[in-house]
Amino acid sequence: ALAVIARGPLLAEVSNGAVSAVLLMMAVSSLLFGAFGMLRQRSVARILGYSAIAQIGYALLALAGGESGPNAAIIHLALYAVAGCAAFVGLEAVSRIRPDWDGSLEGLSGLSRQAPLVSASLAVVMLSLTGIPLFAGFWGKLITFVAAIEGDLQWPAIVAAVAAVVSFWGYGAVIKRLYFHPEEATDTPAESARGGAPAAVLVALAAVLIAGGMVPLVMGLDVLYRLFGL
């Protein structure tokens, strides 16, 4: 909707420079607020909330870039939607595995030994949200950077890259808890440790994120534009 408003006929008579300046201000604010806000959170849901703010910032940056921005923003947000849904489904899976989980980072400690498949899938989701290569989120961020650079927005692209690095500390905190902390004491029955239907959905979405990272590497980025009819 914002792409249509910002780059469509509604604001056709408004200076492109003025529209871009507003979008750029919103983008930089969202990127920095979202990325740095993640660092102080101990709730996984809050980390994902700040993550959403930062991800919107990348889309706004692409829109500020100009002509190629709307398509880049749409692809980025579509790929983020998959990872975002997977993340919140993953939280439900964890709550099935550990019914007493309070939603905190600490409550994820050692989950990889109790539920390895769920933990691996959550790690994939976090890496994709970060924008690590070979996962779908990498391509979403890459095309927003390209759109920004094509729009002569080099310094905002650098800010976005810094935000991506900073955000890894937030996403990485989840992975660290899953794999590098002692397991929390739990009396969860063994049959509940698989996470039920939410775990199955999480694993499927994680597979989509892996495929979305590998396919463009082989077939080129055009496959993403064709996929979304752009």
Query: What is the share of helical residues?
Result: over 70%
Q: How much β-strand is present in the residues?
A: under 5%
Q: Which whole number gives the mean pLDDT?
A: 85
Q: Major sheet, described briefly?
A: none
- Give the termini distance in whole angstroms: 16 Å
Which shape, going by the Cα principal axes?
Answer: globular
Please state the structural category: mainly alpha
Number of strands: 0
Poorly predicted tracts of residues: 9-15
How many H/I helices?
Answer: 10
- Order of SSEs: HHHHHHHHHH
Radius of gyration: 19 Å
Explain what the structure shows.
There is one protein chain. With about 230 residues, the chain is an all-alpha fold. α3 runs parallel beside α7 (about 135-150) and α4 packs antiparallel against α9 (about 195-220). The model is unreliable at about 10-15 (pLDDT under 50). Helix content is about 75%, strand content about 0%.
